[in-house]
Amino acid sequence: xxxxxxxGERKPGKEMSWPYYVSYLQSKYRLPVLLLVVCQDxxxxxWASGPFDCxxxxxxxxxxxxxxxxxxxxxxxxxxxxxxxxxAMAAFSALTHARSARINDxxxxxxxxxxxxxxxxVDYFYEFLEINLRGTPAGEKWRDxxxxxxxxxxxxxxxxxxYLEGEAKGEAKGVLRVLEVRGIPVTExxxxxxxxxxxLTLVSAWLDRAGTVERAEDLFADRAxxxxxxx
Length: 231
Known about the structure:
The protein has helices spanning 14-29, 42-48, 80-85, 87-96, 103-115, 120-132, 137-145, 148-151, 158-181, 188-195, 200-210; strands spanning 2-7, 34-39, 52-56, 59-64, 67-69. It is mainly alpha-helical. The strands form two sheets. A three-stranded parallel β-sheet has the order 1-2-5, sandwiched between helices.
């Protein structure tokens, strides 16, 4: 089992909490545990390497010796193909070199790599970097890179699909609200038709028509504008 902790600087108390993490995970899951500490500078990496001993009177009861990666032993990955072939290594490269002048190039490569990737990996690595870079200039850059407008239009990725479906639901509520304010009745069948449509373009067109139609059925008059996204 791999336990990962990102350490931006030396923090008192880690020599006590890290042994606890390792012991707790090993006891709970009955598996060997490797503690990986990701550092952003040489001084922190040297400290995090330990070892951290627990004992007294010259007797060591427990010794914790983390595996440490930092700018000195992890490469700068600025090639999207290389990043795509090893997303985990690319993510760690971004974390360890977050203060480097090349961080924008690293994050750009990671973004392009995730653009070509689908499934749970996209969500995991997006959130992994967002959480661990939060509150830093690199974190702001990462959020910009992973915006849907810039990187995911028409790619059909899991994140894009979820985003577009969420937007379609919001537009559908707007359609119903406009019809309600105008006093136009909506049958249960039509309400279901509107709220279950996942085609954002189509629902947006309905929202535009909602302000002028005389009947709810007239929303669907232009059949050519409807697509397979309507359910």
